[in-house]
Design goal:
This protein has 157 residues and is an alpha+beta fold. The chain has one domain. The strands form 2 sheets. The protein has a 3-stranded antiparallel β-sheet, covered by helices on one side. A two-stranded parallel sheet has the order 1-2.
Length: 157
């Protein structure tokens, strides 16, 4: 019979200790990963709002420069889909949009829709609600009296 003294390997106790240590590490790391994912999506949402504010400013400046009408005409006739489109927008692009939202941003949305119009929640194109995969909700409001973009961020914490 061959003696077992020369065999190498882990004992059951050693394996249990390793499994417990890995469990503790996973219990600490997974919540931090999930929090960082939500923080990253909030950063994407904040970046999107900033880009929309810039797009509105550029669109408004072009409107004034071309003397298309008064501020009242601008306020009454402009909605978010006039100056913002999604990449590959199924509603079509006019070439006048100052912001085309890239697929890298729309891939973070919970639903994939073909047009920014699909996101309108009040029918006027002045309010958008965008849900992200992590459960965060971005509410965007076009305030036509200023004109300005306002936003609220829900469930990103």
């Amino acid at each position: 019979m061959i003696p077992y003294k020369n065999e190498k390997g882990f004992t059951l106790i050693e394996l249990i200790i390793i499994i417990v240590i890995l469990g503790i590490i996973a219990a600490i790391a997974i919540p931090k990963y999930l929090d960082s994912k939500k923080a990253a999506e909030k950063a994407v949402a904040e970046g999107l709002v900033g880009a929309m504010r810039s797009a509105l400013t550029i669109y408004y400046s072009n409107w004034i420069a071309k003397n298309k009408g008064t501020l009242r005409n601008f306020r009454d006739n402009i909605s978010i889909p006039n100056f913002v489109k999604l990449y590959n927008d199924s509603m079509g692009q006019t070439g006048n949009e100052t912001l085309i939202i890239d697929q890298s941003i729309t891939s973070k949305f919970a639903q994939e829709l073909g047009s920014i119009r699909d996101y309108a929640t009040d029918g006027s194109g002045r309010q958008l609600r965008i849900e992200f995969k992590s459960g965060g909700i971005l509410n965007i409001y076009y305030d036509r009296e200023k004109p300005a973009i306002e936003a609220t961020y829900d469930n990103f914490n």
